[in-house]
Amino acid sequence: TTTPTKRKEKEPFELDFLAPLSQPVADALYTPATTNSTISMPKAQWKSKTRNLLPDDKHFNSRQLLRLFLKPKARMGSRKAGNG
Amino acid sequence: LIINLRKIQEACCYEPTNPKKNQKQEDFEESDFNEELGRCAIRVLAVKKSEPVGDRIVRFLGLFLKHASEKDNALVEPEDVDTTEALPETPASRLTSHILSILLPLLTVKDKTVRFRATQIIAHIVNTLDSIDDELFQLVRIGLLKRLRDKEANIRVQAVIGLGRLADGGDADDEDEDSDDEVAGGILEKLLDVLQNDPSAEVRRSLLLNLPFTPGTLPYLLERARDLDAATRRALYSRLLPALGDFRHLSLTHREKLLRWGLRDRDENVRKATARLFRERWIEDCAISHKPAEDEAPPPGQVSAPRFDALLELLERIDVVNSGVEGGIAFEAMKEFWDGRPDYVDFITFDDDFWNDLTPESAFVARTFNDYCREAEGNKLQDMVEDKMPVVTAFAFFVQKHLNVLIDDVRKVALQDQDDAEAEEDTVQQEFCVEQLLHIALTLDYTDEVGRRQMFSIMRGALALAELPEECTKLVIEVLRTVCGGNAAGEREFCDIVLEAVAEVHDTILGEDPTQEDAEESFHSARSELSDELTPTKAKKNQKGGEDEDSSEVDEEKAIREIMVNMKCLHIAQCMLQNVKCDLEENNILVTMLNNLVVPAVRSNEAPIRERGLLCLGLCCLLSKVCIGNGYNLASENMTLFLHCFTKGHDTLQIIAVQILTDTLITHPSLLAPPPATQDASTDEPSPINPLLKPLTKTFLRALASPSPSLPLTACLAVAKLLLLGLLPPASSTEILKALTIAYFNPETAENPALRQALTYFLPVFCHSRLSNAALMSQIAVSVIGKLVVMRDEAEEEEEEMVGWTVVAGMIAEWTDGRKVVGGELCIKDPGERKDGAEEPHVILATEVLERALGAGCNKDERKPLLTLLSKLHIPSTNSPDSKYQAVSQEAFQTLHSLVAEAVETKLALDATSRNALAKLDAALLKRIGESDKVVASTEA
Q1: Contact between A15 and B226 using a beta-carbon 8 Å cutoff
Q2: Does ipTM top 0.95?
Q3: pTM
Q4: Which of B756, B904, B826, B147 is nearest to A54 (CA)?
Q5: Hey, what's the torsion of the CAs at B850, B854, B858, B859, to 10 degrees?
Q6: Can you tell me the distance from the alpha carbon of B712 to that of B701, in angstroms, rounded to the nearest whole number?
Q7: How many CB atoms lie within 10 A of CB B183?
Q8: Could you tell me if A44 lies within 8 Å of chain B, comparing CB atoms?
Q9: Nearest to B45 by CA among B105, B111, B100, B117
Q10: pLDDT tens track for B443-486
């Protein structure tokens, strides 16, 4: 764990505000993107069909499979057990 | 470390503040300073975004600029307070402009770190400063808007943070010139678009928390309650909504939806956040407004003491009369409320005044409190509810009282010629109160005989009143069932009482014989009238109608009344039948009811009556005893009738028919047994098939394919039950399972989420519950894929979206994975303990896949998904150590291997992945067969 903390400690020192810009940094700063599209999201992703919303949750649960339609209070359990 | 960093910061701080003071005297130094600071800002740009130092410097820069401009403005303002010009130029504003103009062109460089930092600094400056130069503002706006579409999500996040403020600014200053409003409006519009469409949840989340609350943005913000990302949903409930201010400003629909979505979210943390919002924030909004003015507001962070009136208002604000019906969200909300507010649980009391002056809200408080305590574990709450609730006799008195009020209300409304909205509203509220009381009555302890008898006679009296609304009727019947006691004698008494009430209701409404006969007699008269079907009543009607001037009108009124009587009687009967389980044939009174009330109703021409009649008949079938001897009972007798109702009936009747058929089959599985072999064995016919089977299967398949939205769901649930219980013979099961699987992948069912979700649950459960089920799935998989290939072509033509083949193949492979079948979990960990036959489904599937893929009729489009599926199957290269558990025969492996070999030889696979999969399978099988040969050899030796 010492190495990463050390590295982080060093960074602020290395960020010498007075030193001239190093070449790679300068390059990074002054190389504009060749085209707009290289740094932008593809247009296809601009629109989301679902608006990133969940579908309507119908809250299906196993209880719906364990009871009769006509007598929702009665469980089918007993008969199932009898059937093996 | 940090101290060093601070020193750097301090040094920076010192440096700029010093020249700033000098600026006043020596103007030329300002540009030097600006130059210098700009140079420093540039240094930050290359700092990676994971580096906290970078963020700190950005924050420092912002803070400094803010501080500097405040100082500057303080110096300038006193002199020109009323200048209408734009804000005066100051050294700080010039510095800001300088930095911004350095950064702006960097927003579009290639390096993403630089883009990120540049966006971050600009966004930060925008958020810390009150004003920027107009010209630059435009550039900033355009620059940030472009970053809204950056490839990198975290850059979009920064752009969103910056623009959120800009959208806000324009909106707040309504007096600004129009162009500014338009600018803000334009930004807002774009941001709302991003809020809905950005693929990154992080971007949506920071936008959610950075947009201004306005009536215009609110719907968009609240819509995020259903965001795909759980953390975003949680942010809405735990951060945005509590900060939003009084919840009473939200519309009723919004409150209800937010509660419903939040409390029923699939993510537990969202549910928790919603529950807290309800029981801590919303109740507090109400509590504060009910607090007497002289009381001090609680210190921030603390909650107000419990107040009954606040709780009542909270319930009123969520429209408890509607949200408190069965299945409504108010239940869950109140359960969470009691659960998280023990102070309220202790505080609440119910005295006589409370019960005398019930409102929907207070009745709901009592009912949910009662439910909460009685369902709670441990004696403490159970004892508490016993203490706080009145004794049964007293409670019965209150029930009676409120029932009377309700009946009076109903009568009043019925007598009114014009619609009186207020009176109707009162009735609805009173009905709700009575329902709550009856719900409580269902939970009481009736060991006290006096109380029991009292409740019994009240319920009995209430049931005989034609005016009793339906939901109350249902509850009254349930209470009666409870009060009568659970044994067979109790059930018999219960049936008697209810049917007496049916007769009484019948007489009251028809009003033909208002003189009170004794109950028994009036019941007989009711029965006779009904049993003779419509003819006698019609005759009477005609007699009376003839005397009247406009007889047709009276006739019509009569007919309507008659329908109402029937509906009411059938409803009572239906509720009763739902609560009994005796043998129908042994209870004469039920048989009479069946013949006199139900059977005529089934034949009625009025659709609603026929529906209810059919329901009752179905319920009777469930009660009917199966006579194994002759295989003949009410149910078997009526199966064809139910099938007929499906074929000829309208939507609702079809649903009822499917439900009855399913329930009857579940209750009487013997109905599907193959008929006993015929005595004369002369015919060579294969084993006889139950004649019901074919039309039944057809009915279910037709229902599944129906265009109506609810019928396929009912059918899906129906066959799901039948399949899970293993009630259908293989041929039907195969056909139905195929239909279900295809429906699952069919793009058309996407519009029926309830059906989709039921299938999502059912298919894996079915396949993994029994090995034979998984095997069944592997038998149909290939033909399902064949169908899907065709379907995909059609879908492409109609530009519908269908899931990719990898997903389809993955799901089928998973469903048919024998190791996942219940009891097979161990095998995944330890191949040595392979479950008996666990690999069978995949071996079957692999064989089927190859047979099809090698077949002449298989084109490229179909072969590809088939081979994808093949590569996902698991066929181990080692035998089970104990050869007696070898469920899959050697021949099966030999067959499969020769198929694989053929596939390799003919270069069936076109792409590398499938080729590798085939080669791997080939090697595995070779090894395995070789191994078995050895085992065989060694045992033979």
Answers
A1: no
A2: no
A3: 0.83
A4: B756
A5: 110
A6: 9
A7: 18
A8: no
A9: B117
A10: 999 999 999 999 999 999 999 998 999 999 999 999 999 999 87
